[in-house]
Structures are given as C-alpha cells and as structure tokens.
Amino acid sequence: MAAEQDPEGRAAARPLLTDLYQATMALGYWRAGRARDAAEFELFFRRCPFGGAFALAAGLRDCVRFLRAFRLRDADVQFLASVLPPDTDPAFFEHLRSLDCSEVTVRALPEGCLAFPGVPLLQVSGPLLVVQLLETPLLCLVSYASLVATNAARLRLIAGPEKRLLEMGLRRAQGPDGGLTASTYSYLGGFDSSSNVLAGQLRGVPVAGTLAHSFVTSFSGSEVPPDPMLAPAAGEGPGVDLAAKAQVWLEHVCAHLGLGVQEPHPGERAAFVAYALAFPRAFQGLLDSYSVRRSGLPNFLAVALALGELGYRAVGVRLDSGDLLQQAQEIRKVFRAAAAQFQVPWLESVPIAVSNNIDEEALARLAQEGSEVNVIGIGTSVVTCPQQPSLGCVYKLVAVGGQPRMKLTEDPEKQTLPGSKAAFRLLGSDGSLLMDVLQLAEEPAPQAGQELRVWPPGAQEPCTVRPAQVEPLLRLCLQQGQLCEPLPSLAESRALVQLSLSQLSPEHRRLQSPAQYQVVLSERLQALVNSLCAGASP
What we know:
Family: Belongs to the NAPRTase family.
GO molecular function, one term: transferase activity
Subunit structure: Homodimer.
Shape: elongated
Number of helices: 18
Strand content: 15-25%
Strand order of the largest sheet: 15-14-1-5-3-21-22
Pathway: Cofactor biosynthesis; NAD(+) biosynthesis; nicotinate D-ribonucleotide from nicotinate: step 1/1
Number of strands: 23
C-alpha cells in the first residue's frame, strides 16, 4: 500500500519500533499456518491516570499515518533475519516483505473524546500475524499522547477558561519524539500554544515565545544599534531614535517610581530597545534578569512608553522567579498608577506572563480569584507527567476466527473481556454522562428512552437504566486499509475535548477524590464472561 503523502511521512513510528517478541510470534504464527487467521485486538487502559476519573483518547492521527505507511523495507527484513534463528525458512522473510495494512480495519474513539477504563481506544482487526506486529507501535503512539493530553486537560481545568497556557517543555521532554508529542497533545488537551517550532510546522500548533535571560544579559549598555530609528506605527512621519526616546522616558518613570535614574541596569534597557526595534508590534519585557522593581520594571516602562508615543503597544511582561503571584499584583499596581500618571490607559491591561517550574499546586495559586497573572508557561509538569509517567495501555486479543478469546489470570484486574464488541455512551435528559456500556457487536444497540439491564463491575446482580440519549463511541476509521472519512483537524479535536469535559459531572470532573465513572457490561457480554470463566475452572 502506498504511503500517505504527508510531510510527517513515517516520522511518527516505523515498523521496527517494536518489541522483538512480536517478530518471534509472527514467525510462530507463520510456521503454524495461522498468519492469515482473522483476529481482533483491543487497545485500552485499566485505570484512569493521576488519580482522576477520566482520560482523553489521543494519538489516532499518528496511528493512521503509521498504518497507512506500514511496510517492511529490505533493511528491516534483513535486520530481522539477523536476530531470528539462522535456520529460519527464507519464505518467511519473503512473506514479511509482502506485508502492509491493506486488510486491516480499525475502529476508534474519536481523538479528544473522553475515555474510561476498559473501553477500547482502538479495535484493530485483520490477519493475525499483521495485527500482532502492530501491538507495540500502536501502544507507543496512543499511550503517551493520551496521557499528556489528559495531563494538559487537568491543568486547563485548574487554570480555568480565562488564563492563557503556554507549553514550553521541549527542553525537558524525553527526547525529540516525546517533545513533539507533548507539544501536539498538550494543545489538544487545552493549552493555547507551544514554544515548539516543529510542532507548529508539522502539526499546526500555535507557537509563541519572546526572549530569554541570555538575550538580556548579553547587553552591557554600551552597544550602539546599527539603526536606532523607528518609524511611527501609522507609517507616516519621520523615524525616531528609540534608545534616546526611551532614555527620556526613563527619567520620568524613575521620578514616578522614586528611583534614581542610574538604578535601572543599562544593559537590560539596551536589550529591551534592541528587542523593541526588532519587534515593535510585539514587544515584551523579561523583568527579572536583575531586579524586577529597581531595574526590569522601570526599563520596560521606559521602552514601552517610548513605543507608545509612536503608536505601538507593548504586548506583555514575563516573570521567571520569585513569588510570581505577589509580584504580578505589585506590577499590575504599578501599571495602573503609571497609566494614570502618563495618561496611557492601555498600560493598565498589559498582560503579565509567568513561568518557573509550575505544577498543579502552583497553578491553582496563580489561577485564584484576584490573581493578576494572564499567561502561564508550563514545561516539566506537562511534558513529563510527573504524577504518573505512564498510562498503562494494553493491547489484548479478543477474537480469532470469529470466536471469542479471553485472558484468564490469577489477577482479576488483568482478565480481559472476550469477543468483538460495541461501546455506547448513555446520557441523561440534561446531556450529562451517565455511564458507558460495552456489549457484543452483534447485539442491537441501546435505544434512547428504553430500559436497559446492565452489569456494573463486580456486581452480584444487574441494574436498570433508561438513557435519554445514546451515543455510539467507536467510529470506523480504517476499513481494509482505506481511510473511511477525513480525520478532524487538531483544532477540531481540541474543541471536542472542551465539549466532552463540559458534559462530565462535577463529581467526575474534580481532580481530587473524584467519583468513579461507571463502565458496565450488557447482559449477554456478562453471560459470555461467566461462561468462559466457568469453562476454564478445573
């Protein structure tokens, strides 16, 4: 099958991004004459991450790219030949060369949809040998994407809808692939933008960023800009020497703040002027390279007011150390006083951005009522998911040749649910989520307004529910290797996240000690589970 024409191409994953035992099992299937047996696997997780009651399904676009491009190259086959037994039949390797996903069918939760334990994120069916080989790369593509999207959604819930969240964790990420995945799926989970330029180029994630302390401290104040002149924003009138204009404003600002004109660092001011000359319509000051109150703030005000005279408006300031909440309040107070003193009303509302190892606890403090913080940059806490570094997704066989398969184990939590299944979400009359139902694929779908008997986990008897609305969860994504419908854009999936979270009850949405959302089984599926468990008993 020809690879999808996509600038990312095979970047998301390659066929040999897998565990060796997938190849050894493939040889075993082939040797047993079972390579083409019809099989179905499900990819799901067993527990919601971070102690919460929900997760987000993510990574589907990457899976589709991978599946449509799946083909073992000569170099791949040659390497497998070097690690498999030397007496392996050469015909097996010829079979590997012929493999693609043209007979693979995938049903999936939509990207950005709420996901709950046991409900398949992916159902993958096709020839047994092929769909077995897909296990590890699909787990790799889905697990971290879903984890970081869920983490980002939690941070968005803490921040509330008004604060702007910037993901800036690329330098803290677990390698380049982890960095790109984190930037992509933190945006899906609710962040507004990323510092990751490659995520902007390849995934369409909005990118943002200004300057670091190295830029500020690289200036001493003795530098002379090659062209210090800046034309008015309206484009009419002569240019103005911005450095000279800022120096004039500095005297007014220092007098207003009760500072000596020599206190603000001249190198910092030169850096601000240089940045303003390069970005007069997007000037932002990093205030804490030296002293926020005695240097960063007066230097920023001097340059911002000089720009203001020419018709430009500064777009913000950033803090990266200290008590961010308190400093933001103090800075806003200075902005309001300066706006009144110098009759520039726009200065009152200049956005204040903060960063510096912000986790859930620090974010909650910055997002509290009365906070003057407008933009929050988060790196390590979003990309590394320190509370839980893995979602723990699994990929389990549920049917072969149309017959159900079930893993029975000493650990009840690791038992699997047999058979090809359908999944439905039941909603109340107000649109709130009631529960998810798993049933056998051949069963008739639940109907809105009709009574339904279901089995909650571990229950000794069924319960009855009458949903006002019923939504099928698993969408046909690939059929025989062909894309069934265009996948939604990243922005559309991001919007689905916010819609889905709004339907979740506050008891399930809260981040600490939430109520657990129910995933129940139909009577027929429960009966099949009971039958297979009884049949396996000695």
